[in-house]
Structures are given as C-alpha cells and as structure tokens.
Amino acid sequence: MSEPLRAVLGEDQAIVREGIATILRSAGITVAAAVDNAVDLVRVTKEQRPDVVITDIQMPPNLDADGLRAAQEIRAAQPETAVIVLSQFLDASYALDLVGDDPSGVGYLLKEKVASPQILTDAVERVVAGESALDPDVISTLVGRKRKQDPLAALTPKEKEVLSLMAEGHSNSGIARKLVVTVPAVERHVTGIFMKLGLSHAGSDQHRRVLAVLRHLKQ
C-alpha cells in the first residue's frame, strides 16, 4: 500500500488555510505543516520534504508576491517537490513567472476555483505526477490577448480550444475526453497548431509542448 501524499500549506488567512487543509485531508492527503508566511514556508518545506507545496501568492512578511517568490525558491532548491500557487487575481504573468523554463510539477489556480475540492485534488495529483495544472481562465487570457502580428489568428476555433487545453497541461487523451473527440483528431489539431505557430520542432513530450506554447503566448 502506497504512502499518502504529504503537503505543506502556506496561507495567511486562517479560515482559508483551514478550509484548504480540510479539503486535502478529506482526499487522504497528509498536511505535514500549515504556515502563514513565506519565510516559514521555505523553512518548513526544507524540513518536511513534502510531495507538494500549496501557497497563496500574497503573504507576509511583505504582503506582496512573497508566496510566489517562495514557490520559485522551493522549486530551485527542491525540484522533486511539486508546487501549486493560488492566486486571487487573474494575472497571467504570475503563472508565466512560476513556470519559468520547466512546467513540470507546477500548478497555478485561481482561489475561487478551490471552492471545488475536486479541482484542487486533481491539480495535486497532476503536479505530483510531474505534469502541470494551469488555470483555464489564465490560459484563456493569454490566448485571447491581441497582438499586432498575431499568428493565433490563423488558428481555427477548435485549434484554439486544443491550444488552451494543451497549455493547461492536458495530454492528448485528456483533451480528447474533454472535447469528446478521438485522440487521432486531437493529434491532427496539435500538428496543425504547431505548424501554424512555428513550433513543430517542440517534439511530442508533454512538458516541452506546454513550455513551447507558454513561451509563444508570453511573446
């Protein structure tokens, strides 16, 4: 029998912190520690070596993006620990800063979505498995941005749907399930997307696909 996943939680609002901890425990995830500031989050994560860290962006001591910076520090020091950042704001730049050059083991969710336990626990399972879990609304914001010379304009509506799901971190089979189409159909859309965006060299690896898409959307 496998050991339960272990999580460290960073959230300065006590009610929210306890609510998230309750969701995790209900899913059989052990909350190894729960802290209210970014300094303790980094320290406790180093001590506990959890499977996943879940943190708010804005936390003490500065009530700025301390949680995001702590998450980046943890990723650099403990790459084996997955990280999920919770944000109150629809700010795609935070997600891009968190992902950096490696989308594996990274999640970025809007706090309002965490009211649904399944969304949070699904994200935990995905990032611990080395995948990414990026909020659909954040990806939609990136995909929908206007650019002076926008290669996204060449994509069909269905290709834009597939692109958004790819950037969230879904595999071809996962995309097929969500869109109720066949995997070969998704593969054709993916091929078309990469060709139109000049990303055909990105390869088939899921992490490279997500990273290639995010890099393009960031431009």
Summary tags:
globular; 6-stranded parallel sheet; 2 domains; about 220 residues; about 15% strand; alpha/beta
Describe the structure.
It comes from Streptomyces canarius. InterPro entries: CheY-like_superfamily (IPR011006), NreC/VraR/RcsB-like_REC (IPR058245), Sig_transdc_resp-reg_receiver (IPR001789), Tscrpt_reg_LuxR_C (IPR000792), WalR-like (IPR039420). The protein is α/β, with parallel strands linked by helices. It is built from 10 helices and 6 strands, in the order βαβαβαβαβαβααααα. It has 2 domains: 129 residues, Response regulator (Rossmann fold), CATH 3.40.50; 80 residues, Arc Repressor Mutant, subunit A (Orthogonal Bundle), CATH 1.10.10.10. Helix 2 runs parallel beside helix 3. The radius of gyration is 17 Å and the shape is globular. The mean pLDDT is 86.
Summary?
InterPro entries: CheY-like_superfamily, NreC/VraR/RcsB-like_REC, Sig_transdc_resp-reg_receiver, Tscrpt_reg_LuxR_C, WalR-like. By secondary structure, this protein is an alpha/beta fold.
User: Separation of termini?
Assistant: 46 Å
Question: Strand content of the residues, in percent?
Answer: 5-15%
CATH architectural group of the largest domain: 3-Layer(aba) Sandwich
- What is the count of distinct domains? 2
SS summary, helix count:
10
Low-confidence stretches: none
CATH-derived topology of the largest domain? Rossmann fold
Cα Rg: 17 Å
**What is the CATH C-level name of the largest domain?**
Alpha Beta
Mean pLDDT: 86
Instruction: Please give the order of strands in the largest beta sheet.
Output: 2-1-3-4-5-6
Number of strands: 6
Shape: globular
Task: Give the H and E element order.
Answer: EHEHEHEHEHEHHHHH
Largest sheet: 6 strands, parallel
Organism: Streptomyces canarius
Domain Response regulatory: 6-126
Modified residues (4-aspartylphosphate): 56
Protein name: LuxR family transcriptional regulator
